[in-house]
Backbone:
């Protein structure tokens, strides 16, 4: 157990079994009351434990945003990079050691908007990376602006008349670009989420898990969902579990069903496999200068 | 004092003009004692389509300006290249021309000497006009002091694919033995 | 005993006639580079092409990315995986990379960026020479920082400075830019690749504490202001962020933490200027008219010095090999003695301004002998402009 630092929040608390997976002195976190990121982070830790991957081989990479802060709280090799660039950073980090498990934890804005090009290409090349993408339907950290996952009619600070653009369907996007493991859960599906996280972590190749998270502060209160619990209840009432469904049929609309489940699980050579294959092919080529 | 010499090879795409510059440049830079050489070639839009050129600048000291601007030697393999570049050949410059592909005009009168060779036709006797560039270099080698045959052969054998070496040697000899 | 398979080496000792772009790639390999992430762009693409062929031969990886944003991010990632890493680009691509070059500065990530300059701004002159990115290499990313940039003026120096660039990157934990240009990148010249034993390879400092025993402090700097680097997979549970951070690597968002880290990031370079700054002096002892130049322009400048000397003009050349950090002190000394300083560069006076700053209040007047992108100076052109001012 890592020695705890003096900290008013945990000074009198009993040591929690997961304490050693959190960086000493980093709690309290910055996340708001009612936010799902705390419980999702707990599930990430539990899934890592259950996967039995050597913690030494785990690296957490994130971009910018509320979810992006997760890297800094988790007590593994962790890299808090720039907005949108978590995936290419993770690819460079990952291919230097085939035993390394690189996990990208970041938000929908980071992964699918500013980093969208990297998402589609990382999926295409089946990079050996597990992505936990927390979708809270908008930009939380910057104060609640509309995003590429906002549904039509959603009220945000930059969509004061309601959002007018179609949202991305992230599982469909990842699957169509070549991701070899794709699933979606709401923050409420803790048990299934954990099972899926374990599968994604143990999957060889590009695994993409979307987690619909509650953001009461900048999403809920503008959309008649005043607290975290209300958002989760809303998720619960709309959730339909449909494993194996074509993710194209899982688009999320305002008040429509939220289809969750595991949509894709296939095996293909990974980027690392293919790069290592080149080593043999290159051996007999005379270098030309 | 500078002993700068500028050579321009020019023709059309597919004639192996860049390779001519590269082989001659390397032969001089690596094998001629006391000489340095820089090779540059036309690049980008100017090298797409029609004309193609490559330059070798030779000196006995460090080369301060790598591009050829006033050629001492102009090795010309096409009419278009002739029209485009003859203006930049020095007064009293030496010309080598592919005589079947270049029609000379009054501008060529400034040359101190014009060496003519049907390099493409000679190459075709070996089965492919692709050997015309090496045939021309054999001719240049025999009629100038720019580089030595044995050095050139070393470089050429290293740079050219094994199955083309034999015919390239033959092409070089056809050029070397040609009487203009 | 089984016959050992013949490995293709990372240092191709020998004599070659090749281009600057290939030489900088081979220099990188000789320095120990094992990773290249890049995106095609004229006139630098041959660097990527060569690395694509060579890296798999030496047990490394080449990945062509979707854009330059991804390329540089992957280079930082690979460096944190423990591999010496680089990328190559030209002006427009460098523009896309600068945000993550800043991340590299903040995370103190050793890496090398080759910029084969062309004319700008914007798409500019894709196939023609320029030296217009020198200030971008200095100030391209937001915020205050110090950076290292080197500028070769021959094919041989492309190879040699690639090794220096990697060594500086490793030693000072900073992204290093090699400012080449289209002419140097594409011209062929003699290159001598030395024996392995003659190539000096520096590696980043390793932490002295054992992993897992106590909380590792990834940004606790030594006396030299450089923290040892614990990379991924070593058990240190290292942490890094682009946010202002403390010795633990934890974000600390206040003015005093900012002052502490920015000062250290700058000083680790500035206090080592003597180690980093390299220049070549030519006929400067008695020079009244000093040319300052770098990269391809410096060759013509040397030619101009020779032409001037032949006419009895006491000219000399200071060639900047290290562009950043800037050789303020050397230039200040020069400006005390010389009558006129001329800066020869292929841009609208980016280094001229810098020389005017360094030479301020000294004896010498400073003028730029400038060309915009597209062509290089001839020695005669430079001499003509000098004579107009003499």
Residues:
């Amino acid at each position: 157990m890592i020695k705890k630092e003096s900290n008013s929040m945990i000074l009198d608390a009993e040591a929690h079994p997961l304490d050693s997976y959190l960086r000493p002195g980093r709690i309290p976190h910055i996340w708001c009351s009612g936010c799902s990121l705390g419980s999702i982070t707990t599930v990430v830790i539990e899934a890592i434990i259950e996967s039995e991957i050597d913690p030494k081989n785990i690296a957490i990479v994130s971009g910018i945003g509320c979810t992006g802060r997760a890297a800094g709280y988790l007590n593994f090799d962790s890299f808090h990079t720039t907005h949108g660039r978590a995936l290419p950073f993770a690819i460079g980090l990952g291919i230097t050691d085939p035993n390394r498990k690189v996990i990208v934890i970041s938000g929908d804005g980071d992964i699918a908007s500013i980093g969208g090009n990297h998402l589609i290409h990382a999926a295409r090349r089946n990079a050996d990376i597990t992505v936990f993408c927390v979708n809270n339907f908008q930009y939380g950290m910057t104060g609640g602006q509309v995003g590429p996952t906002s549904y039509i009619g959603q009220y945000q600070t930059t969509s004061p008349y309601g959002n007018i653009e179609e949202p991305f369907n992230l599982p469909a996007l990842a699957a169509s670009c070549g991701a070899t493991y794709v699933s979606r859960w709401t923050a409420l599906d803790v048990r299934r989420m954990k099972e899926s996280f374990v599968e994604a972590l143990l999957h060889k190749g590009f695994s993409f898990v979307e987690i619909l998270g509650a953001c009461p502060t900048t999403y809920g209160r503008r959309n008649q969902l005043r607290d975290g619990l209300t958002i989760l209840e809303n998720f619960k009432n709309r959730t339909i579990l449909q494993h194996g469904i074509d993710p194209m049929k899982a688009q999320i609309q305002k008040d429509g069903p939220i289809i969750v489940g595991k949509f894709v699980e296939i095996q293909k050579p990974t980027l690392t496999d293919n790069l290592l294959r080149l080593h043999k092919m290159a051996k007999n080529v005379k270098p030309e200068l | 004092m500078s002993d700068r010499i500028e050579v321009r090879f020019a023709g059309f795409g597919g004639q192996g003009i860049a390779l001519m510059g590269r082989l001659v440049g390397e032969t001089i830079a690596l094998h001629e004692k006391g000489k340095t050489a820089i090779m540059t070639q036309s690049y980008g839009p100017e090298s797409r389509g029609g004309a193609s050129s490559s330059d070798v600048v030779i000196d006995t000291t460090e080369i301060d300006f790598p591009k050829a601007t006033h050629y001492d030697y102009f090795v010309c393999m096409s009419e278009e290249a002739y029209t485009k570049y003859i203006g930049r050949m020095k007064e009293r410059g030496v010309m080598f021309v592919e005589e079947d592909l270049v029609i000379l005009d009054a501008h060529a009168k400034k040359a101190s000497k014009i060496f003519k060779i049907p390099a493409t036709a000679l190459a075709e006797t070996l089965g492919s006009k692709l050997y015309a560039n090496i045939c021309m270099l054999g001719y240049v080698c025999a009629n100038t002091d720019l580089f030595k045959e044995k050095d050139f052969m070393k470089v050429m054998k290293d740079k050219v694919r094994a199955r083309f070496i034999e015919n390239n040697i033959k092409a070089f000899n056809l050029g070397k033995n040609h009487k203009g | 005993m089984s016959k050992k398979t013949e490995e293709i080496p990372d240092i191709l000792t020998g004599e070659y006639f090749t281009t600057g772009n290939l030489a900088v790639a081979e220099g990188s390999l000789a320095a120990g580079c094992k990773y290249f992430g890049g995106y095609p762009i004229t006139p630098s693409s041959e660097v990527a092409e060569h690395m694509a062929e060579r890296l798999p031969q030496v047990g490394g990886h080449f990945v062509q990315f979707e854009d330059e944003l991804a390329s540089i991010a992957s280079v930082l990632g690979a460096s944190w995986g423990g591999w010496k890493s680089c990328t190559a680009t030209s002006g427009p691509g460098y523009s896309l990379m600068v945000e993550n070059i800043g991340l590299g500065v903040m995370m103190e990530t050793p890496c090398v960026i080759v910029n084969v300059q062309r004319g700008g701004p914007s798409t500019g002159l894709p196939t023609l020479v320029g030296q217009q990115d020198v200030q971008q290499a200095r100030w391209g990313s937001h915020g205050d920082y110090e950076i290292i940039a080197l500028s070769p003026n021959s094919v041989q120096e492309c190879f040699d400075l690639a090794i220096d660039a990697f060594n500086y990157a490793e030693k000072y934990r900073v992204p290093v830019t090699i400012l080449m240009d289209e002419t140097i990148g594409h011209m062929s010249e003699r290159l001598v690749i030395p024996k392995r034993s003659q190539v000096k390879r520096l590696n980043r400092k390793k932490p002295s504490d054992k992993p897992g025993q106590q909380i590792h402090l990834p940004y606790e700097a030594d006396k030299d202001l450089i923290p040892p680097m614990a990379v991924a997979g070593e058990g240190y549970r290292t942490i890094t962020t682009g946010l202002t951070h403390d010795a633990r690597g934890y974000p600390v968002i206040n003015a005093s933490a900012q002052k502490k880290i920015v000062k250290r990031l700058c000083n680790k370079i500035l206090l080592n200027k003597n180690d980093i700054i390299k220049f070549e002096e030519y006929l400067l002892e008695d020079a009244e008219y000093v040319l300052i130049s770098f990269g391809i322009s410096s060759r013509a400048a040397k030619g101009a010095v020779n032409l001037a000397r032949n006419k009895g003009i006491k000219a000399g050349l200071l060639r900047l090999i290290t562009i950043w950090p800037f050789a303020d002190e050397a230039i200040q000394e020069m400006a005390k003695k010389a009558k006129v300083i001329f800066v020869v560069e292929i841009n609208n006076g980016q280094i001229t301004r810098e020389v005017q700053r360094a030479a301020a209040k000294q004896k010498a007047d400073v003028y730029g002998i400038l060309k915009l992108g597209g062509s290089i100076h001839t020695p005669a052109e430079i001499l003509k402009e000098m004579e107009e001012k003499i």
